Amino acid sequence: xxxxxxxxxxxxxxxxxxxxxxxxxxxxxxxxxxxxxxxxxxxxxxxxxxxxxxxxxxxxxxxxxxxxxxxxxxxxxxxxxxxxxxxxxxxxxxxxxxxxxxxxxxxxxxxxxxxxxxxxxxxxxxxxxxxxxxxxxxxxxxxxxxxxxxxxxxxxxxxxxxxxxxxxxxxxxxxxxxxxxxxxxxxxxxxxxxxxxxxxxxxxxx
Length: 206
Description:
alpha/beta
């Protein structure tokens, strides 16, 4: 991970925005973007994941500096989480479960290219049917499939574990985990690890 990550916050009201920045102040690795500084990560705090929120995620990700996005929502169902990940969110948290350290971890994970999803929410995502995705995505993943090793690695990536942690949990070398993720992203022409997790979930292969 980087030594310092610059973060901005978009919230439904100024008080909530200030509170979120205050919660992140406990981490020496996360600093607010000030002045003309461009954020590495934008934290978006909302009540529900409705269409306007998904539009906001798209606009944020489409900015010239392409910040990563961590979404914090009051209510977050598996279908909503699935849409948020597919739209570009790198981390998902529920507000009632979001402490300063946990939010900082999600921000740092997003900045380093990892995707963080609460374990119980991940279980709900895994129950989503293949038909939730477009036929092209489902067919592409279904034709090639994922090995048990690839499934195991992708699940731990989705839970927010770093490469070294995944290697330790699965008794693999760090190089093996890196190779697994490289092979998956190259085989399916995906942008990064979060993209791989999102598409695997949408295709029902995790």
